Amino acid sequence: MQLDGDHSNRQRARYFGQCAAMMQNVLRQDIDAGPLSEVTSVDLSVETEPGHEGIFDQALSNALAAIVAAEWPGEEADSRGRVHFARKLLKVIRDKIPRDPATGLCVIPDPHADIRSRWDLGAPLPDGFWDIRIDVDLLTHALDVSGLARHGSGTGRLQHRHVQALLALDHHPALGALGEAKSDHDLWQALDEDARSADQARSLIELIGDEEVRRRAASAENPNAYHPEHNPDGHTFEQCPVCGYETFCVEGRDMWGRVGIGQCVVCSYVRGSVVADQEGFGEHVAWLRGDD
Ligand SMILES: [Zn+2]
């Protein structure tokens, strides 16, 4: 499937937001867990708990692809349209932006500085607060560390400084996804609708009775069955999470291709795309972490 640029970048931002919010929680837990004496000064060399390297890499890859696609459209992918790995995207950024001689960082000036100076009058932030600072060297080092940790051959772990360099990317207007991931109104609404749909499906099952449910399941026909010629985009029935029969008609999949979007032809339960993405994200994270 070929996605248009805006759509891909929204997905990247969303995925980055969810992964980055998890990394932010890792920082908080580490700080909360430490003795009080260590909380007063932020020690950036503190190592994160192992097991988050995959999530870190995913967050970084998506953030860099979104930033490069927004700043230099087309440079995020090779000639065949495959998106570059994070290491290559960092090279693109380093080649495009001269380093700040004082800090060694690649800085994209805040594109909304004019508008912001008016908002911020009440509580002025330091000049350049919203500039996007990309620490190419540190993020490249983070990829080395997490790669070794993931392959079980490294001794070091991701440090707080690596996570902070990742979270700093959220200032880019193509992202700005961290806050959104934490108070995602669409998600709560979708979860609410999902719960209501499951409730209605259970009421229907009660109303018509087990016998009738079984009869319907036995004679159910899949309106979107796969057929190599007539319906190549079709899907076989999947198990319905409410009635338990293999009668869930799949119309599409979540963004990781793990969870079906559609409706059960027996109990009428509907799973929408937002809930499917959320469940798919959970499964995907479990997979990244190597849980089974
Ligand atoms: Zn069902």
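^ zinc ion complex. Residues 185-218 form the longest helix (34 residues). Residues 9 and 66 are 5 Å apart (CA to CA).
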